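Aim 2, interim progress. The first record below pairs a target sequence with its C-alpha cells.
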Amino acid sequence: MGKEEVLPDGANVPAPDLNGPQTAGSLNFMEKYGEERSKRIRAEGYKQYIDLGQSDRLNSFAEDPWIDSGTPVNAPVEDGGHCKVAIIGAGFGGILFAVRLIKAGFSPDDLLIIDPAGGFGGTWYWNRYPGLMCDVESYIYLPLIEEMGYMPKRRYASGYEIREYAESVCTRFDLHQRAMFQSRGQSMTWDDERKEWIVKISKKPKGGQESLHTVRASFTIIASGVLNNPKLPDLEGINDFKGHMFHSARWDYNYTGGTPERPDLTGLRGKKVAFIGTGATAVQAVPELAKFAEKLYIFQRTPSAVDARDNCDTDPDFWKNNVATKPGWYRERNLNFSTYLENSEPKPAKNLVNDAWTKFPSYSGLIGTNKPVSMENIQEHLGELHALDYARQERVRQRASDIVDDQETAARLQAWYPGWCKRPCFHDEYLQTFNSPNVVLVDTDGKGVDRITEKGVEFAGEQYEVDLLIWGTGFRSPFIGSPAGRADLTVNGKNGLSMEDVSNSGDLLTLFGVTARGFPNLYFPGPMQAGISANFTFTTDTMAIHVAYIMSRAVLGGEVNNTVVVEPSQEAQDDWAMQIMSGAVTFAGMQGCTPSYLNKEGEADLIEDKMKAAKNSIWPNGFSSYVQLLEDYRAKDNLEGLEVSYGA
C-alpha cells in the first residue's frame, strides 16, 4: 500500500426527505424498507434456527475437523485442584484476558484456559473456509500488534494469517501450557463458605468418552466470544440429503480439495454445489467456490450490502511512515477509527484508517454517538441518520448495478434496509462472481428455501440437484441470553443466584458491562451495558485491560495469602444502569430493522417491557467515550463502586 485510498462517501447522492416523495421505484424509500422487512418476519423468530451444539440430531455438524481422533486432553490443573483464574474461551477474548492479567502481574501458572476447540483462535480456529479474511483493517484488528512488533502481510488479513498470529501471541506469553482444549465449561458455582468458584468441565477428546473434571478458582472469566456457535435453519428434510453436506464453520477440505492456506478446491471440478446464505461468509467464500464448481447455486434470503474492500499487500515503507510511526500508534489508530464510525464530534483532523468503514457514519445507529439524543430531538436524530445512510446505501446499491452485467440479478443483490441493521460487507470479487456463467443466484425474496430433499434443495416448486450442500447460515446471536448462557454454561452465584434466570427476567445489571452484583470475582466482556465498535478485538482488549486492573488492584490490596472478594455495589450498578437506560433512545433506529442476529431475528422489537430492554442496551455515547471513561476511572485508582473484602 503506497498511498492512502480515498473512497467516495456518497456526498453527491441527494439526501432523502423523510416526509417527502423521495422514491425507490414507485415507493418512498422508507416504505420500501418496510416492505422488504415484512418479507423476513417469521412468527417463530429466533426459533427458526437450530444451534448445532445443542442438537442431538445435528451435533455431527459441529465436530472438530481440525484435530485428530485420540488427541489427549491436557489438564494443567488436576481434577479437584485449584487455580487463581479460570478463563472460559481460547479465542482472542480468552487470549487477551490472559495476556492482560500477565502484564498486570499474574503468572501464566495462575491461569487455566478452557475451550472445546483443539487449539487457540476461537472463531479463527473454527472458520477456515476459502477466501476467509477479516473485514476490519488488520493494522487495528490484530490485538497486541504493537507489542508484538508485527507487520500484517495484507491490509485485510486472511484467516490463516490471523490464526497463525494468535498462536504466536500465545507462544510469546506461554499460554499453551495453560490451555485445556477439547473441554467445555459445564457449570460454575460460587462457594459462599470458601469464597471461590467450583468449575465443572466436560472433557471430550475426539473419538473418546466424555468425563467430568472439577477445579476450584479464585476468579473466573467468561470470554467465549460472539461468533463461535454455528446454527442451521430448522428445515424439513435437512437429514435426508444423500450428497455431501457441511457448515461453513466446519469446512471439509477432504471433500473440496485444498487447504486453509492454499484453497485450491480441485475436488469440486465437475460438481454441482449449493451454498445457502448470502451473509459475510458467502461474500468471501462464493468467489473461491465459483473458480472450481461446475455449477454453483447461491440461495439468498436477504442480500448483503457489499461495499469495496480495496485489499492490498502491506508496503513496508507505508507501514513505517504511515502506520507504526510512534509508541501508542495502535490505540490512536483504533480510537481514530471509532470516532469516524460513531459519527462523533469533534473528529480528528486526519482519518488514519480511511476505508469504507470510516465512510459509514450512520453505523452510529448501532454503536452510539457522543451527540446528545433525547426524546425532544429523536426525530431530528433519526432524520440525520437516515439522510447519512441513504446516501451510503444508494452508492452501494449502485455499485451492484455497475458491476453485475445482468440488471435483474443486480437488482436482487441490492440491499433495501438501513445500513446499521445488518453487519455490512466489503469485498472486491463477490459481485463480479455473478457475471460467471456457472453461477446462479436463487433469490427466495425473503422466504428462504422450502425444504431439503435427497437430491438437493427445493424452492418454489423447483428442485436444484447438487452434489454438495454448504450451509453459510451463521452463528448464534451474541445478544441472546446471559454471558453464561451464550457459553452454554450454568452459572450460580451467591446464595445460588442463577445468572440465566436473572438475565431472562431483564434484571442482570452490571458495572461497566464487565461484572455483576451477586456474581463476585466473575468477569465478562459485555456486549450488553458495555461499549461496542465494529472492531471486536479492540473492544474486548479495552475491557480485558480494565478487568486486569480491577483484579490486580484488589489482590495487591490485601495480604498475599488472603482471600479477596470483589463485586459491584448496588448503588454503582444502579447508577450505571441509569446511564445506559437514559441513552437507549440513541438506538431508536434499530426498531423496525430487517431481522438478523443483531435484533434476535426481529424478537427485540416485541419486548414488552421497554424499561428493562433499555437498561440492557449498550453504552450510548460511542466506544471512544467508553474507553476514556474507563481510563479516567483507573486514573482515580480507588476501585470506586466496587465492594472489596478480604478473609484468611
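The second target in this work package is listed in the same format:
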Amino acid sequence: MSVLSEKLFQEILLARQRVYEVGKPTPLQKLNLRDIPAAVYAKREDLGPIKAYKWRGAYNCMAALTPEQRAGGVVAASAGNHAQGVALAARHLNCKARIFMPLSTPEVKQREVRRHGGDHVEIVLHGDSYDAASAAAHAYARQNHLTFVHPYDDLVTMGGQGTLADEVVMSGEGPFDRVYVQIGGGGMAAATACWIKKFWPQAKVIGVEGVDQASMKLAIEKGERTSLEYVDVFCDGTAVRTAGENTFPLCRELIDEFVTVTNDEVCHAMRAMWDSSRVVPEASGAMGLAAFMQQWQHGEIGEKEKCLVIISGANMDFSQMGLVARMAGIDGCETRYLRIPMETKRGQILKYLRSVPEGATIVDVQYGRVAGEIQYPVFGVAGTQSDFEIIEQRLAEKGLKAEDVSNDEDVRFRMIHYDAERLSHPVFVQIEFSERPGAFLDFMAAIGDLASLCYFNYVYSGERVGRALMGMEFESREDRDICRARADKLAGTVIQGIHEVSPAARKRILDTMSPSSC
C-alpha cells in the first residue's frame, strides 16, 4: 500500500473508537434476487441513524477536532445526507454547525437536518447546485477561520466511512469475490477498498458511477482530475463534478475496475431491492446493485462467486417514486416506446395492438389524430428482448417498422399532438378497465365497427384498474348513439366504468389541442 492508503487505514482504525457513540453497526443481508443464483449480500446503510452512511464520516471528522475548533463551530456543504450527518454530530458534540445547501433542496431534507441538529444547526440556502453551495461554504469558513467538514475529500472523514467495511469483515460472511462501491466524490469507495484489500487482497473492488456522473473514471483515464461539463442529478447522492484531490489517487490505487450504470439500470435495481426485501433505496443507494446486475446479465460473474453491494442510503423524495416506477417497468422488463405508422382507417390501432405478444404489457399509449393519411401512435411496451423481436417480426409481416422513440422529448413529456378540426361527431370519454391482458382489446373489438379512435391517453399506474382518456369519432350521429348504447352495456363487464367528459372539459380539450393554439 502507498503512504496515503496506509494513513487512511490508520484513520479507519481510530474511527472505530468514535463512530459508535452515535450509531450502531448496520446489518449485512443476503438478498434473494429472482433468477440470480449467485450469493449477493447487501450492507444495509439505509438502516443507520440518518438512513445513509454519511453519519460515519461526519461524526468521525467532528469528534476528531480539538475542543477549541468545535467551540468556534463548523461549516459544511451538502445536498442532503452529509448535512444530516453533520447535524447529528453537532447535537451530540454540543457544537454549532452552519450548513450550506442548494436553493433547490427539498423541504423534507431540510426538515430532517433540523430534526437531527435542532438548535445546533443553521441552514443557509445558496445557489442552484451543490457546487455553488460548496463554494459559498468554503468562502465563509475561510473568512471566519472556521473548520470545514468535507463530505468526502478528507482522510478523517474517509476514516469514518471505512467503518462500514470493518463491519463487513467482522461479520463472518466473507471473504467476498466482488465488492461494488458507488462513487460520488470517492470517499466511501476509497475507504471501503482500503479496508477490504487489507484483509481480502484477492477481492475485486469495482467502482460504480452513473453514465453522466463518471468524474472518477474520467480522471483515471486522463491521469488527472478533470471536471465534467455536465452532471446528471437523477442519482443526486453521487452527482459530483470533479474527483477529490485525495480520493483520486486512492481510488486509482485501490479500485480494480470502474463501471458505469444508466438511470434505467438503477431503477431496475431499486425494483429488484423492493421485490426481494420490500426496501426502497435512494437512487444512488442502488448503484452498486445495478452494476452487479449489469455484470451478471453480461455473463461476467460466476454462479459460485460471492458478491457484496452497499445500499448506501434511502433518503429519496417520495415524489420521485412515480418516475422510478415508470423507468423500472413491470416485473423487471425493459420498457420501450414504439412509434408505429398506421393508416387513417377504422380498427387500425386494434390491429396493431394484436401485434404485441401475450408476455408483454402495454404500459402507455399516446395518440392524437393529425393531418395526413398516416398516423403515428406511440405505444409504451414492457417486455423482454424476445417480445420486442416478435413485435418487430409481426409488424414486418404487415410491411411496417416501429421506431424506438424512448428518448424523444415529446414522448417523455407526453406531448400528444392533435388536430381538432379534422374530427367528425367526436365523443370524449373516461374509461376504467380491469388491468388484465386483453381487456382494452375486448372493448375496442366491441365498438370497432362503429367508431374510429382519434385520441388515447393512458399510463399504467400499478392499480388493478386502468384509467384512460379516449376520443372516438363517428361517421354519423346515428353511429354515435348506437355506440353510446353499446358502451353502457359494456360498463361493469369488459369496461368497469365509462362516462363522457363534461361539455366544458370537452371544449377545453378541443380548444387546447386545436391547430390555432399550437
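The two ends are 64 Å apart (CA to CA). This observation will shape the mutagenesis plan for the next reporting period.
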